[in-house]
Amino acid sequence: PPDCDVTHAQTITVGSSAISNINFSMSTGQRIFGQVRSTADAPVSGASVYIEQPNGQQFAVAVTDGAGHYSFSTLAQASYALQASANGYGSQLFDHIACAGPTQTQCNVLSANLLDVASQDLYDINFNLPQLSTVSGRVTGSDWRPLANVFVDVVDQTGNFVASGNTDSNGNYATGPIGMGIYYVFATSYVT
Description:
The protein is mostly beta strands. A hairpin with a 6-residue loop joins strand 5 and strand 6. It has no helices and 14 strands. It is elongated, with a radius of gyration of 25 Å.
């Protein structure tokens, strides 16, 4: 069975007759409840909240409802790390720890504050995800005619690559997603 250590279990011997009185007493476990909202305080529906063991092994996932609520139930007493992510948003570890990378989606579970599930349910385990953005515009030549197939790169202030895109036949481009910050945008044409 998953997540069961059978080295401490009692064995049974099955013979030719039926075995009875193999009884179990099961715990109902504890629950974790919370909400995922944007940094602008709007609920984020369809966000994924992952519950992980401290070694980073994913245990379960819950998806938020229309009001951004999620829950986990029947959790055994243990320590857990939680991570929330959603399309168009940066990810976050509990307790409001931003993930790394230009789109804030590189999460290291070792950075999370662990939740100790013991003898009671945990409420208000909330997240506030930063909304990601795009950079868009138009590239033209010196004669103001649109340039197609121009490479547009976005780099951060230290010169690290963040995102890229190409112009269409009208010279328009869009690139992202990127997190909030200050960036440089470069346009490069290899057409001669």
